[in-house]
Amino acid sequence: MNTTLDLSELEFKIGQLFMVGLAGPDLDDATEKLIRDYHIGGVILFSRNILDPLQLAELCKNLQDTSMREQETPLFLAIDQEGGRVARLKEPFTCFPGNEAMAQDRFPLRQAREFGKVTAREMKMVGLNMNLAPVLDVRLGPPESHLTGRTFGENPQTAAELGTIIIKTLQQNNIMACAKHFPGLGRA
Questions:
Q1: Residue 142, preceding peptide bond in cis (omega within 30° of 0)
Q2: Rounded to 5 degrees, what are φ and ψ at 77?
Q3: What's the DSSP call for residue 82?
Q4: Under a CB-based contact definition with an 8 Å cutoff, are residues 136 and 88 in contact?
Q5: What's the mean pLDDT in 140-167?
Q6: At what angle do helices 108-126 and 156-172 cross, to 10 degrees?
Q7: What is the pLDDT of residues 73-86, one digit of tens each?
Q8: What is the rounded distance in angstroms from the CA atom of residue 69 to the CA atom of residue 93?
Q9: Does the N terminus or the C terminus of the chain have fewer Cβ atoms within 10 A?
Q10: How confident is the model over 167-178, as pLDDT tens digits?
Q11: What pTM was computed for the model?
Q12: CA–CA gap between residue 114 and residue 120 (Å, rounded)
């Protein structure tokens, strides 16, 4: 059994560890080069990359087509769709309140399931496959400005319970979930 990797296999495996961003709303030459020459594993999209659902679907299709043509491997296509103030998909996509509002809702478990189900459906419709959410940091007393509304509050049990529901619901609907932040912006 040969246990060594040739250089091209090693370069491919290293490239798959990287997720990059795009400068604008279209697939550009620089990103095509990263896919073709460096075999990147994913692309993270921000508000600057999203004009409307049709444009986003076309961008995701172009990214995946390029990846399949150049490296025969699909990309992770990720966004931060936490709800509240960190939501890259704006109207006409469904807008949910942030985690803090969800935790304070009269029916937080139902709200968490609905968030996961609707978010997964809308992400799949445009070709996204990874949500960099939910935030599982636990607030440390008064809200830190960078986490305001983004945590489920001060109770670790609440964060664990609601976060688990969101993660499972996203995954049951074929969207990868990425709990964050590690090692933590609040208490991890």
A1: no
A2: -115, 110
A3: E
A4: no
A5: 88
A6: 40
A7: 999 999 999 999 99
A8: 30
A9: N
A10: 999 999 999 999
A11: 0.91
A12: 10
